[in-house]
């Protein structure tokens, strides 16, 4: 049994669905009890305050579940979807639909027939990690909207897995997009964010099969990358390039120069005064931070604690150009508060990079660099000033490590 | 491959009819998979000499996810792959949800790819009392639904409910109604009654199984009548029904 005294459990599957689909002007329906969408909108979805309602709950009451009032639920969704003039409707499962075996796939067909809108179901159960829910949502989105005949874009690139629960506000991935452009790539689609100047926020999704390569920046993008290689032959590289060395290594992977990413990196001009760091957070970003701390700041040992499952990172499938990550002895996949506290308070650890909520677990004197993980701290640190991607990430970390 | 779900009123003879069809198909050389969907786990016993296979849900509870399909399947008469969903002790738990779990497990374990059945028969308990019992009708599971009925009023009422449920869900892409199978109780004008009912419901009677004490005599031995004596006139009816099921597959492939 997991115990939480200082932290909240991480967001689960349908939060991930919301995160992955929020920016595409759809209606995300959580098949949960009355009030079920409240915690998504109020706690985990900071964007809710800034735009129209996109996530709604089914508002199920006890008798709805017992008597299976499907017609009432479907009528409500049809009316809401028509009233809000959404571009699609996505139904996401929760423990309720999982336990009573609600046929959300069948519901989707009925709602589609009655609204003439694209409707799809995301098979979440509410017990899976948020990253898995987001992954399933991205696959469903791709199945529904990707155009297999999309025009080819020379050096076109899609960014997969940039969901707000993992990568934060869209502004935090802008430095990455800039580095990709400078590196000769042309961003086609970002999953999941609409691009500026697009009247149809789904246009990137539709055009995504025309890209030449995919960049997977969180585990939520892995399944989509594999599907897009199988369906469209688009190769992919996995990694979140943090700092300067990470930028160069990731661009090399994307160009298919895997060996170049392993080239020895010269020792940093200004090493940080730390020897053993612990990074806690999303696995792809965690490994990106390790690369940066080691190569840009000379931190010898960096352990990565992945709070959502990171195994899939290391199962390289066909079409994978490379992964900016390597499993090391001190790494661990866990979201258990007690275990993370033990690691943070290891006397050998002198630097911690983690969401600010983890600071409550720190009893020792290790330096703490706050880096929000929205799946943990939600809106609490949404507006905090921080960066991680490429040079902006270097500057942010340097501000903490070199001027402390 | 064609997948057919057999529904009907409790006690109407669904397992007898389903096993008879499986035995006839197996005798004719078809690869058949029969999945009993009833906590009593008695759908396939007459293909297996009276001994049912390990129920899937009980296996999951006691031993966890099976490593291979062989742990939950047995080969019966006619080389039919026999499986039973199993289910909760009467009075507790939720069988409908359990059935969904078992169906998903078979899907995940690649049962259909492994056995490559020409015909899959789901033998489903009683009426569609909850969403879970309708699972076999859903997209991805059965292609056709056949309803076993007699000419009795209550059996026809149950059949009507099942047909209405199917038609309610037409826009969800559920299975199509294949027709009625009359399992005779020796009522006066029984065949006409059921044919009239079928016409009213815009369907047809796809098979008629006469009342025959030989069926029960062979079941006492843990066998179907098709296995016991394939030359009997009643066995011939099962071979006819098997042919109808095979035609479903041909029609589907043609479409």
The proportion of residues in beta strands of chain B is: 15-25%
Q: Decide which structural class fits the backbone of chain A.
A: alpha/beta
Shape of chain B: globular
> Which CATH C-level class of the largest domain in chain A is it?
Alpha Beta
User: Regarding quaternary structure, how should these chains be classified?
Assistant: heterodimer
Physical arrangement of strands within the biggest beta sheet of chain A: 6-5-7-8-11
Shape of chain A: globular
The helix count of chain B comes to 9
Low-confidence spans of chain A: pLDDT under 50, at least 5 residues?
none
Q: Tell me the β content of chain A.
A: 5-15%
- Protein structure class of chain B: alpha/beta
Strands of the largest sheet of chain B, in order across it? Answer: 3-4-2-5-1-6-7-8
Q: What is the name of the CATH architecture of chain B?
A: 3-Layer(aba) Sandwich
The end-to-end span of chain A amounts to 38 Å
Bin the helical content of chain A.
25-40%
With helices defined by DSSP (H or I, 4 residues minimum), what is the helix count of chain A?
17
Largest Cβ-defined interface:
A-B, 12 and 16 residues
Rg of chain A, please?
A: 21 Å
Please tell me the total number of domains of chain B: 1
């Amino acid at each position: 049994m997991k115990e939480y005294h200082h932290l909240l459990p991480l967001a689960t599957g349908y939060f991930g669905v919301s995160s992955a689909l929020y920016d595409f002007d759809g209606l995300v329906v959580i098949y949960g009890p009355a009030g079920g969408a409240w915690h998504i909108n109020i706690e985990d979805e900071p964007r809710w305050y800034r735009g129209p309602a996109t996530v709604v709950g089914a508002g199920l009451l006890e008798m709805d579940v017992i008597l299976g009032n499907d017609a009432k639920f479907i009528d409500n969704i049809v009316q809401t979807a028509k009233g809000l003039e959404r571009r699609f409707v996505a139904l996401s499962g929760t423990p309720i639909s999982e336990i009573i075996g609600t046929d959300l796939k069948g519901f989707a067909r009925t709602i589609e027939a009655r609204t003439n809108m694209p409707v799809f179901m995301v098979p979440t159960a509410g017990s899976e990690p948020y990253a898995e829910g987001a992954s399933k949502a991205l696959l469903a989105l791709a199945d529904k909207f990707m155009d297999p005949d999309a025009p080819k874009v020379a050096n076109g690139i899609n960014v997969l897995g940039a969901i707000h629960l993992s990568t934060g506000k869209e502004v935090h991935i802008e430095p990455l997009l800039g580095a990709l452009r400078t590196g000769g790539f042309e961003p086609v689609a970002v999953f999941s964010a609409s691009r500026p100047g697009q009247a149809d926020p789904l246009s990137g999704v539709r055009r995504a099969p025309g890209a030449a390569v995919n960049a997977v920046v969180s585990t939520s993008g892995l399944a989509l990358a594999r599907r897009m290689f199988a369906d469209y032959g688009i190769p992919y590289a996995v990694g979140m390039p943090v700092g300067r060395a990470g930028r160069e290594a990731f661009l090399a992977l994307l160009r298919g120069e895997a060996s170049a990413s392993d080239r020895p990196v010269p020792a940093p001009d200004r090493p940080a005064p730390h020897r053993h760091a612990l990074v806690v957070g999303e696995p792809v970003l965690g490994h990106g931070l390790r690369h940066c701390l080691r190569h840009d700041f000379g931190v010898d040992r960096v352990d990565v604690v992945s709070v959502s499952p990171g195994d899939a990172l290391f199962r390289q499938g066909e079409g994978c150009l490379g992964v900016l990550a390597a499993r090391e002895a001190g790494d661990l996949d866990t979201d258990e508060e007690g275990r993370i506290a033990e690691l943070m308070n290891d006397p050998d650890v002198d630097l911690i990079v983690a969401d600010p909520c983890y600071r409550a677990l720190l009893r020792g004197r290790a330096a703490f660099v706050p880096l929000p993980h929205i799946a943990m701290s939600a809106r609490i640190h949404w507006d905090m000033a921080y960066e991680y991607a490429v040079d902006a990430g270097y500057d942010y970390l340097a501000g903490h490590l070199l001027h402390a | 491959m064609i997948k057919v779900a057999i529904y009907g009123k409790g006690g109407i003879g669904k397992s007898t009819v389903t096993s008879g069809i499986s035995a006839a198909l197996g005798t004719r050389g078809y690869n058949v998979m029969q999945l009993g969907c009833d906590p009593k786990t008695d759908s396939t016993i007459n293909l297996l000499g009276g001994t049912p296979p390990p129920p899937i849900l009980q296996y999951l509870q006691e031993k966890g996810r099976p490593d291979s399909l062989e742990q939950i399947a047995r080969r019966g008469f006619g080389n039919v792959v026999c499986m039973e969903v199993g289910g909760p002790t009467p009075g507790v738990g939720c069988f409908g949800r359990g059935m969904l779990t078992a169906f998903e497990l078979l899907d995940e374990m690649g049962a259909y790819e492994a056995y490559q059945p020409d015909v899959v028969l789901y033998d489903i308990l009683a009426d569609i009392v909850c969403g879970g019992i309708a699972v076999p009708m859903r997209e991805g599971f059965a292609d056709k639904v056949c309803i076993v009925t007699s000419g009795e009023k209550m059996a026809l009422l149950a059949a009507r409910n099942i047909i209405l449920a199917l038609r309610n869900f037409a826009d969800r892409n559920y299975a199509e109604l294949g027709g009625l199978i009359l399992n005779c109780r020796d009522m006066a004008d029984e065949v006409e009654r059921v044919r009239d009912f079928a016409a009213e419901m815009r369907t047809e009677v796809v098979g008629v199984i006469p009342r025959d004490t030989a069926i029960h005599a062979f079941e006492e031995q843990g066998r179907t009548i098709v296995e016991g004596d394939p030359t009997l006139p009643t066995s011939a009816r099962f071979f006819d029904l098997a042919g109808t099921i095979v035609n479903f597959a041909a029609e589907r492939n043609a479409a």
